[in-house]
Design goal:
This protein has 8 helices and no strands.
């Protein structure tokens, strides 16, 4: 177990980062190909449910481990990051194919979660437990969004857009209050991350938060419109 609690500092765009990005790219291509070949078949149902179980099998033990001594830390152990909620919703979307769960998987996975793959806020490199938690939660959520959309053919609409945006605003409000009360910074809602990120382009707090909310509204509308127009 000690091997999973040590690791060199993670270097963005180092060897492990490029390897993970390459694996995710290959995985995305294969999932789209496989999904299209087996769309609307019992095999697709079995596969997506096994995909859901894979996410849970990887993330739940690591999440539980992070919440018990000596690994507990109020600043990062609670599943309050949006990406923590994303892997939970993603697992349910894969299992059930419910429209509301797919909507959150689509918008969170293809915009907010994918941003973390490009500018990962990760402290330790392989084989530290946080390395597996980060890439397992973020990477599989993005792959699932791609698989459900371009592989199995699920589609968002304006109702999906409004629902996902409302849920996201609710998460921002609740998490801001918790951060203020507990002195934490979940979601980087109360301060920017220490490393470089897209937030650096949006000004100081709280202006970057307001800008991010506005940009999300526009970006999500843009990735909704083509599907609605085609229908």
């Amino acid at each position: 177990m000690n091997a999973f609690l040590v690791g060199q500092p993670f270097a963005p765009y180092g060897a492990s980062h490029w390897l993970i990005l390459a694996l995710l790219t290959v995985g995305a291509v294969w999932l789209v190909w496989w999904g299209r070949r087996h769309r609307e078949t019992p095999a697709a149902v079995r596969f997506r449910r096994r995909f859901a179980l894979l996410i849970l099998a990887l993330q739940v033990p690591l999440q539980v481990m992070s919440m018990v001594p000596p690994y507990w830390n109020l600043a990062h152990s609670l599943p309050l990051q949006l990406c923590d909620l994303a892997w939970m919703v993603t697992a349910y979307a894969l299992w059930s194919a419910r429209p509301w769960a797919f909507a959150l998987t689509y918008y969170w996975g293809l915009t907010l979660t994918i941003q973390a793959l490009i500018t990962p806020g990760l402290q330790f490199d392989f084989p530290h437990v946080s390395f597996f938690m980060f890439w397992g939660g973020h990477g599989l959520a993005v792959l699932a969004a791609i698989f459900l959309t371009w592989g199995l053919g699920l589609r968002p609409g304006w109702n999906s857009y409004r629902f996902a945006y409302a849920v996201t605003l609710m998460w921002i409000f609740v998490t801001l209050l918790f951060n203020y009360a507990a002195g934490t910074n979940y979601g980087f809602l109360n301060a920017k991350p220490a490393g470089a990120s897209i937030l650096d382009l949006l000004g100081p707090w709280p202006w970057y938060l307001a800008a991010e909310i506005a940009l999300v509204a526009v970006l999500w509308a843009l990735i909704t419109w083509p599907w609605v127009r085609r229908r």
